[in-house]
Specification:
With 116 residues, the chain is an alpha+beta fold. It has four helices and five strands, in the order αββαβααββ. A three-stranded antiparallel beta sheet has the order 3-5-4. A two-stranded antiparallel sheet has the order 1-2. The chain is elongated, with a radius of gyration of 20 Å. The termini are far apart. The model has no long low-confidence stretch (mean pLDDT 84).
Length: 116
């Protein structure tokens, strides 16, 4: 008898795999989604796990933005399927984490530190 561990399946093939294994396994596996997973060079790489400030910090890091505005955050939130009304809250969270700093221009924030 063997135990299969760390078996990863693309979401579009999950149904096929579960049907194929249905009659062969003693105890069928419970599918667990991996948030923000991508395959890069044959390895699974995950992003932040759904926490909006962490996800925004990751976005700023990957786009190499130097200035962040509430409109930039609003558009990013809409792309995530969220309401754009919490853009100011997210900016304040990144300021508390010392990832952003207020500038002399109203509505512009300087990226001063990169996320982990």
């Amino acid at each position: 008898m063997f135990e299969l561990r760390n078996v990863y399946v693309e979401d579009k093939h999950l149904g096929e795999v579960m049907r194929a294994l249905a009659g062969l396994l003693i105890k069928p596996p419970l599918p667990v989604p991996i948030i923000n997973a991508q395959v890069e060079k044959g390895k699974i790489v995950t992003g932040p796990a759904g926490n909006l400030p962490d996800m925004l910090a990751e976005q700023v890091k990957t786009t190499k933005a130097t200035i962040v505005t509430p409109e930039y955050v609003r558009q990013w939130l809409k792309a995530q399927g969220r309401a754009g009304s919490s853009s100011t809250y997210l900016i304040q969270q990144l300021i508390k984490r010392r990832l952003l700093k207020k500038t002399k221009k109203i509505g512009q924030y300087l990226v001063i530190a990169k996320s982990k």
